[in-house]
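Complex record, two chains
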Amino acid sequence: MKVVLRNPRRELEVPAPRTVAQLLTNLEVVPESVLVIRNDTLATRDEHLCEDDVVEIRPVVSGGAQ
Amino acid sequence: MKCRRCREPAVIDVRRHNAGFCAACFTRHCAEQVRRAIEDHDMIAADERVLVAVSGGKDSLGLWQLLRELGYDADGLYVGLGIGEYSDRSGEHARAFAERKGWPLLEVDLRTTFGFDIPEASKAIHRVPCSACGMSKRHVFNDAARSNGYDVLATGHNLDDEAAVLLGNVLRWDAGYLGRQHPILAAAPGFVRKVKPLVRLGERELAAYCVLTGIDYIIEECPMAAGNRHLGYKELLNEIEERSPGTKAAFLFGFIERAHERFAGDAVDERDDLHPCPECGAPTPADICAFCRLRARATRQIPVRVET
């Protein structure tokens, strides 16, 4: 399964875990800090993943001090 | 996971609400949260002109679209900060969005208008870039809104932004900042009203809203913000949120509803003793306003210390 990470953009090939939640756990990503986009569609934490999926993990945390 | 409202398959889960939403119900949820924030705090009257500060990012572009969809007369303002290719790309996203929608976008470029950019200003005052950036944006936003006849300035500060700022203010018990931290900052002589209509939406919700409604925002983060204290507070709060969903909202909304009033007097004191800056006319408690002193240092006109 291809995983696309951002800032900086990079790609990983990883064995497909069972769910989105497990993928984030394996990558040590805090779910609250990202959106998961599976094959160009938003994915919820309980969604199942397949070996031929392309999954983007898009950070949502932004901003300088105000 | 099913949509909480219509039972169709969900595309986004929001643990704070213990709910999943389909695309249609989620975009409706976002609009409802913005409408509620505006109504709860009397942010914008129906006939008022709104200037939205847009950066090309998810929050500001999402806010502009949400305000328009709620029927407000909202135009955009983009400030060119001169942060290399990042500013070039963020400007492109803001312009492309405005053009696609056919909505007016005002632009102010710091270098063209004031003769400096953020990297230069940061070096000149020996402070982190976010300090010079925040000061410059506050000045330009207020000045642009006043000089172009807008009633209210709307910024894309979301629930996560405000919770992180609150955490920083509480850790330092900064009474003046706590007194000013509110979804609405009333107009005062020389100051246009400032509102934060996204205060009820987290940044994950804003990002999802943009993806679901086709808003092409800049995903790249400002290179000058990397590692700053504000982002550190957000990381900490997200780890707490993960263990205890709803904590960020409880922290922020509890402050607004039950604690803000206790600090309001400290903020009023700081805005009472102001006079027009002789350089630019902006209200200031000092001889020359902080922005003009920053500009002087950045353009090497006069060697004065900037205090913010």
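Note: Chain A touches chain B at residues 6-7, 30-35, 37, 41-47, 58-66 (CB under 8 Å).
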